Amino acid sequence: LVSTGNICRSPIAEAVFRKLVTDEKLEHKWRTDSAAVSDWNVGRFPDSRALGCLRHHGIETAHKARQITKEDFQTFDHILCMDESNLRDLNRKSNQVKDCKAKIELLGTYDPQKQLIIEDPYYGNEKDFETVYEQCLRCCKAFLEKYH
Question: pLDDT digits over 99-126, tens only?
Fold first, then answer.
């Protein structure tokens, strides 16, 4: 799960998906992680508002931001991102990777409500983080149903 800085959207999506997989007792079938396209926030914990939103929904995460690597394109089956800018950047990076096996697409592709883009809530408020959480939950559930 990839976003620009890996401190808001993608850590929320990662934590949501990990909880869904755990609740379904499918941990042995899935390796879940999140990363950034940029290197701006490498080593930082998620935004405090993202952590608060997750805690409000009973989800914890110990994630620290990292940048996507060439190995990610070679080892993951799916790389899901949040917006068109991320998608362009990931497609460009994947073209530089020999034997890329990851299918790269927008997480919003799986949204039953057809909201394709998951907007960055960084400059918003708690309500915007809640919107991201709800979108990620819908999309991750639909993605898991499709590939389970």
Answer: 999 999 999 999 999 999 999 999 999 9
- In whole angstroms, how far apart are CA 105 and each of 28, 43, 73, 108? 23, 25, 13, 9
Burial class, 148, CB count within 10 angstroms (exposed 0-12 / middle 13-18 / buried 19+): exposed
**Cβ-based burial of 9 (10 A; exposed 0-12, middle 13-18, buried ≥19):** buried
Sheet containing strand 78-81, strands side by side: 35-36, 2-3, 78-81, 103-106
Q: Quick one: angle between helices 126-147 and 9-23, nearest 10?
A: 50
Instruction: Show Cβ contacts of residue 31 under 8 Å, excluding neighbours closer than 6 positions.
Output: 76
Catalytic residues: 9, 120
Distances (CA, A) of 128 to 21, 52, 88, 89: 25, 12, 24, 24
Q: What domains sit in the chain, N to C, each tagged with a CATH number?
A: 2-147 (3.40.50.2300)
Question: What pLDDT is recorded for position 148?
Answer: 86
Q: Is residue 52 left, alpha or beta, with left meaning phi > 0 and alpha meaning psi from -120 to 50?
A: alpha
